[in-house]
Specification:
single chain; 4-stranded antiparallel beta sheet; 9% helix
């Protein structure tokens, strides 16, 4: 009887480990102030939220994006990673526009240029998908973070979903990052 109980406890622990993603905050305080890629620090992790410092209307540069929260892929999506660079050179220059990863891919990082510090300087996205994930999503939701990004706060996707795109509102300041497109993975591998 004790072997049966030990097996059930072990099975429950394994199930919890598989269901609960492993998430951690990644410091972008310095990296997003300069040219280059700021991304999740573990291969295969995907972005679920951004945290910013207090709004200062005279200095609301993108470098005030201080941290990102990255989470591991849920089960059964453990098979390898396919990474792509998405060209956001023009979409992040335009008010009231979405910049998105291609279907089935999830955001893992942002590349910024020099010569400015506005949303227009976000030039590329790094996106990933597990190798066994189809080129589509489960459920998607556009999350309005306009009020959230008006203060020093973390703005997140709902539990179980990952960032797949950003919406630039009516200006080029960081506070005009108005929406996150958040999607879940599909139900089963391809």
């Amino acid at each position: 009887m004790s072997i049966y109980i030990e097996f059930k406890v072990l099975a429950a622990l394994v199930f919890v480990a598989v269901v609960e993603p492993d998430c951690r905050d990644v410091n972008w305080e310095d990296s997003f102030d300069r040219l280059g890629l700021s991304e999740c620090d573990r291969m295969g992790d995907m972005l679920v939220s951004f945290c910013r410092s207090p709004v200062d209307r005279s200095d609301d540069r993108i470098g005030r994006l201080e941290r990102a929260r990255c989470c591991s892929k849920p089960f059964p999506w453990q098979e390898g990673n396919d990474y792509v660079k998405e060209n956001w050179w023009h979409s992040m220059d335009t008010d009231s526009t979405w910049s998105l990863c291609r279907d089935g891919y999830f955001l893992t990082g942002l590349y910024r240029s020099i010569g400015g510090s506005t949303l227009s300087n976000i030039e590329e996205a790094r996106c990933t998908r597990p190798l066994n994930h189809p080129a589509k999503y489960g459920l998607c939701e556009d999350v309005d973070i306009s009020d959230c990004f008006e203060q020093a706060k973390c703005c997140s996707c709902p539990d179980g979903s990952f960032i797949v795109g950003l919406y630039r509102g009516g200006c080029s300041d960081l506070r005009c990052l108005d929406k996150l497109r958040c999607c879940t993975m599909t139900v089963s591998p391809k």
